[in-house]
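Lab meeting, item 3. Inverse folding demo.
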C-alpha cells in the first residue's frame, strides 16, 4: 500500500496474509475480497518501507476509504501526531 512519494521513491506499508488470530496495535485487518485480496490480510502500519518506483509491478486493487481512515489513525498514533 503506497502512503507517500519522494521523487522516484515511494513509502509503502506491507500487506500480508493473516495467519494468526491476534491483530497487533500496529496492524489493520482487511477482509478477503477487499482491494482484490484473495485472503484475509493485515496492513503492517508499523513497518513502512521505501521502495523505488521501478520495482513496483501492476496495481492489484484499491482500499476503501473506511480502511484508509483506520490506517491513517494508526499512523498518527504510532507517530504520536
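The presenter then showed the designed sequence:
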Amino acid at each position: 500500500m503506497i502512503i507517500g512519494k519522494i521523487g522516484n521513491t515511494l513509502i509503502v506499508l506491507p500487506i500480508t496474509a493473516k495467519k494468526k488470530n491476534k491483530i497487533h496495535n500496529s496492524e489493520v485487518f482487511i477482509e478477503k475480497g477487499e482491494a482484490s485480496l484473495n485472503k484475509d490480510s493485515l496492513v503492517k502500519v508499523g513497518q513502512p518501507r521505501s521502495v523505488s518506483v521501478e520495482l513496483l509491478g501492476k496495481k492489484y486493487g484499491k482500499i476503501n476509504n473506511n480502511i484508509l481512515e483506520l490506517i491513517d489513525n494508526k499512523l498518527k498514533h504510532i507517530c504520536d501526531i
